[in-house]
Amino acid sequence: MDGAGTPAKATNLVLLGPPGAGKGTQARRLEERFGLVQLSTGDLLRAAVAQGTQAGLAARAVMERGDLVSDEIVIAILRDRMACDDCRAGVIFDGFPRTAAQAEALDALLAEAGGAITAAISLVVDDAAMVERVSGRFTCAGCGEGYHDRFKQPSATGICDNCGSDAFTRRPDDNAETVAQRLRAYHAQTAPLIAHYDAKGVLTGVDAMAPIDAVSESLTAIVDPATA
Ligand code: AP5
Predict the structure, then answer these.
(1) Tens digits of per-residue pLDDT, 106-123?
(2) Residue 225 clears pLDDT 90, i.e. is over it
(3) Cross-strand bridge partners of residue 91
(4) Pocket flag, ligand 1, residue 142 (CB < 6 Å)
(5) H-helix or E-strand spanning residue 46
(6) Collapsed DSSP state (helix, strand, coil) of residue 182
């Protein structure tokens, strides 16, 4: 509630950028700092694949090829997750929307709840550097904290800084061939959404070739006033 006793408006952020741009890395930091929920459709789809649900069975081969999963499947998964109570305070959309149909569905879902996108942030990177970023990535199996062979090693070798686990995983779609296809899919189907959010007056571009901490500072400067 704000000072006048009316419910405060939720802060809803969209992170746009190609594979490796840093959407997941930055979404986790924004989640901690601003108390928002990171909602990654990639993570939701990987969970569906691991659980062997009908959606997961349909998505698996598509993800391994580096193509986009159908709007129907992704929007249904997202709608279910957004219905959870923890999303009411605000959401960081990481990897969603990725098509014009998904952007329209998101606008409609938020409007149903009296909300809207507060800020859409485009992480601007050089494609050529993304293959190294993605293929060097590994993730803590315990808590999901992200690391990189070159750019972000745990402080103690083989031990997660965040939870102390010594188990790490690598994604099956993090190979050079699949990353190239994921980049093609991004430019063909997702990059046009930059104009969609620009037309709504909520778009900001951030240099995401900068070091991780510098990118976080830029994002905080955008989100801070939006949550005030
Ligand atoms: P998804 O899981 O969303 O993958 P992605 O978009 O390809 O993005 P990534 O997770 O690879 O990259 P990121 O931007 O999060 O980078 P990260 O922070 O990890 O989607 C996977 C698949 O699921 C898709 O191909 C598709 O099939 C399907 N899918 C998902 N959503 C969908 C949707 N809405 N519609 C249809 N299909 C969908 O960083 C990468 C590495 O770089 C890390 O190691 C990190 O430490 C490092 N790093 C990050 N920032 C920096 C920096 N500034 N400097 C140096 N290193 C950095």
Answers:
(1) 999 999 988 999 999 999
(2) no
(3) 12, 37
(4) no
(5) helix 41-51
(6) helix
